[in-house]
Amino acid sequence: MDLCKIDFKREARELYAPPRHPVLVDVPRFKFLMVDGCGPATGSPDFDAAVSLLYTASYSLKFSLKRTLGLDWIVAPLEGLWSSRGSPAFDPGRPADWTWTLMIRQPEQVTAAHVEVVRAQVAAKARGSLLERLRLEDLAEGRCAQVMHIGPYSTEAPAVDALKAFIAAQCLAPAGRHHEIYLSDPNRTAPERIKTILRQPVCARENVWAPSEGEQAWAISSGVSGTA
Question: Tens of pLDDT along 26-49?
Answer without folding.
Answer: 999 999 999 999 998 888 888 999
